[in-house]
Amino acid sequence: MLYFAYGSNLNHFQMKRRCKDSIYLKKINLKDYRLTFRSKYRAADIEPKKNSIVPGGLFEISKSDEKKLDLYEDFPTLYKKFYFEYYGKKVMTYTMVKKTSFMYPTERYLNVIKRGYKDCKLDIKYLKIGLLPRL
Predict the structure, then answer these.
(1) What is the rounded distance in angstroms from the CA atom of residue 80 to the CA atom of residue 119?
(2) Residue 74 lies in a domain
(3) Separation in Å, CA 113 to CA 30, 56, 74, 88, 105
(4) Residue 4 in contact with residue 108, Cβ under 8 Å?
(5) What is the count of structural domains for the chain?
């Protein structure tokens, strides 16, 4: 199955540790969404936003990888599954159940994501935009 990572799972080392069967395919953009951070965990989330994009990593994962991700993402309590089409293929990602207000992520978590942006060769400007408090 195809999985879209946009937060700490962009980090190839962490993703391999969590999902041993995962294979990084390429970077892709999720259109009409933006990155944000919220909840008491100050974790990454995505929300609809016209003319905006969320860059991320496309991974091939196994059924057992998906089960592990479900545990890490606290599915279905904290995150729910969200599916979108990418060139006719179904892609799964996670989005938060409760859309609480913006919370700046911890330095440690942010560094894991920054490493992931490097691993996937993503444009860091989108991460910086996601870190701006919402007006």
Answers:
(1) 26
(2) yes
(3) 17, 11, 19, 28, 10
(4) no
(5) 1
The tokens describing 118, both together, are: 């490097």
Tens digits of residue pLDDT in 21-74: 999 999 999 999 999 999 999 999 999 999 999 999 999 999 999 999 999 999
Q: Tens digit of pLDDT for each residue in 93-126?
A: 999 999 999 999 999 999 999 999 999 999 999 9
The Cα–Cα gap between 47 and 35 comes to 7
HEC-encoded secondary structure of 45-57? EEEEEEEEEEEEE
> Which structural domain, as residue segments, surrounds residue 105?
2-130
Say what the pTM is: 0.97
